[in-house]
Specification:
This protein is an all-alpha fold and 328 residues long. It contains 13 helices and two strands. The longest helix has 38 residues.
Length: 328
């Protein structure tokens, strides 16, 4: 019985493979007697091609998942101290913008990381609608941020990222957030001319004129903490300490992180001889200005004002005040 053979699959070779059971053969098992090629070489090539294809697909999948992993790793690192500060939030917003991560993906990643770390973990399956009080608080926080952004008449790219991150974090509908922004801009455009005239009058040491202009601005934009904080400064300049304190406190009701309101409230307290409270307010002012990335003023600028502000003369020699200046 003739030995079973197979045709060589290599191009140009007319030979046939020998059956491995054939005796007296010079070639290796499963090798072609003519060209010496391995019988299974085409299979090996096909297998190699398949392995390469699997590697490419796997690599593509890994690369597609890399943006989410990068965001998750960064968020997890920032959350080690239990909170995300404003600088870290901006970095996360930039990362989300770079990789074009959607709001649902970001929310899912944040929830997973929080649950893993046990930090204010939010159940992933359902998210109850915010209560009216929560919604009002979110809106107020967003309005305060918008007032900060537009206080210098310009919204930068970083500020847009901060705004988008705040809307996402507070679970505010995008369309609703845009409506709030347009309302804040419209009110500020009406109030701005009076506000600018108030600043000019204050610089010219005309406190009564400044008060009147700031009050007109406030009539157009009643929840603007910057108008209220500057009105407090004008009251302080006019010697109306209690009115100044009330105006600054009202500003903080709208924006608890408004550094100027804290600063002017500290001045009011210094005028009234409340040294402990004054120094506490001034320290809060320095902390807030360091966190506020929407303003064009630095902590060094504020420290310089603290060193020369005549309203603080009553506490200037206080050791705690000097320690505050040295600290920053």
């Amino acid at each position: 019985m003739a030995a079973k053979t197979w045709k060589c699959l290599m191009p140009g070779c007319p030979s046939r493979f020998n059956d491995p059971s054939e005796q007296f053969r010079d070639t290796a098992v499963n090798a072609c007697a003519g060209c010496g090629r391995w019988r299974y070489l085409p299979h090996a090539l096909a297998g190699g091609a398949l392995a390469a294809l699997v590697a490419v697909i796997g690599g593509a999948g890994w690369l597609m998942g890399m943006p989410a992993r990068s965001y998750e790793e960064r968020y997890d690192a920032y959350l080690r101290d239990g909170k995300i500060d404003e600088k870290e939030e901006l970095e996360l917003a930039k990362l989300a913008e770079k990789y074009r991560l959607g709001g649902e993906i970001i929310a899912r990643i944040q929830d997973e990381v929080k649950q893993r770390r046990g930090v204010n973990a939010t159940p992933a399956p359902t998210r109850p609608a915010p209560s009216p009080d929560q919604q009002q608080g979110s809106n107020r926080s967003l309005v305060a941020l918008l007032h900060n952004i537009y206080s210098d008449h310009l919204k930068t790219g970083d500020e847009q990222l901060l705004l988008a991150a705040a809307i996402e974090r507070q679970r505010i509908d995008q369309a609703h957030g845009e409506r709030i922004e347009q309302q804040v801009k419209a009110r500020w455009e009406k109030a701005q001319p009076y506000f600018e005239r108030g600043l000019t009058a204050a610089k010219q040491a005309k406190p009564q004129a400044a008060i009147e202009e700031f009050q007109r601005a406030l009539a157009e934009d009643g929840d603007n903490a910057w108008i209220l904080a500057n009105l407090g400064a004008a009251y302080l300049q006019a010697g109306r300490i209690e009115d100044a304190r009330a105006s600054c406190q009202r500003a903080l009701d709208f924006d608890e992180r408004n550094w100027l309101a804290h600063y002017n409230l500290g001045s009011c307290r210094a005028k009234r001889g409340e040294k402990d409270a004054a120094i506490e307010s001034l320290q809060q002012a320095l902390e807030c200005v360091a966190e506020d990335r929407t303003q064009r003023i630095t902590r060094d600028d504020v420290v310089g004002q603290l060193r020369t502000d005549v309203a603080l003369s009553s506490i200037r020699r206080d050791a705690r005040f000097q320690q505050l200046l040295a600290k920053y």
